[in-house]
Structure formats: C-alpha cells, structure tokens
Amino acid sequence: MLGFVGDVGDLAKLVMAAEGTRSMPGGHAALEHELADCLWSVLILAHRYERDLETVFTKTMGELGETIEARLVDHRPA
Fold first, then answer.
1. In contact, 1 and 45? CB cutoff 8 Å
2. What is the dihedral of CA 52, 54, 56, 60, to 10 degrees?
3. Angle at 42 between CA 41 and CA 45, to 5 degrees
4. Distance separating alpha carbons of residues 37 and 24, to the nearest angstrom
5. What is the pLDDT of residue 56?
6. With 90 as the cut, is the pLDDT of residue 59 above it?
7. CB of 38 within 8 A of CB of 10?
8. Which class for 41: exposed (0-12), middle (13-18), buried (19 or more C-beta within 10 A)?
9. Which 3 state secondary structure label does DSSP give 57?
10. pLDDT tens by residue, 16-56
C-alpha cells in the first residue's frame, strides 16, 4: 500500500508536467509507466483482499453515471 501511495505521488507530478505546470523528466513514457504501476497496485490490492474488481468497478461506474445524470437533469435550463 505504501508503494502505491508513492506511485500515486509520482503520477501526480507527471500529470502536472503533462499539463505544463511542473517540469519533470521522462515525458509520456514516464507517465505511461506510472499509470501502469498504479493499476498494478490496485489489481494486487483487490486480489489481496479478495475483491472482484470487475464487479465493483461496474457497480461503482453505474452509480456514478446515475449521479452525474441526476445532476445534469437538475441543471437543465427551464
């Protein structure tokens, strides 16, 4: 878990570099590497705690979609 936190920090720096708000060596290759490292960590955590990541991801994305849709409906012009 601590490695994942470190990887997320590195990813944050690389995203800022990609957005032009920070200087960071490595460019797109480094960003891709950190994205893969973070994904690997999430997969390992799901396996370690015996969670069906595909199922919970699908459920969570459905809930998020419903929330976004409700907010869009609430903000439609009359």
1. yes
2. 170
3. 85
4. 18
5. 96
6. yes
7. no
8. middle
9. helix
10. 999 999 888 888 999 999 999 999 999 999 999 999 999 99
Query: Cβ distance 15 to 31 under 8 Å?
Result: yes
Model confidence pTM above 0.85: no
pLDDT, residue 77, reads 75
Q: How many CB atoms lie within 10 A of CB 26?
A: 14
Query: What is the residue type of 37?
Result: D
pLDDT at residue number 13: 94
Q: Hey, CA dihedral for 50, 55, 61, 62, is it positive or negative?
A: negative
- The span from the CA of 3 to the CA of 7, in Å, is 6
1: its two tokens: 């878990």
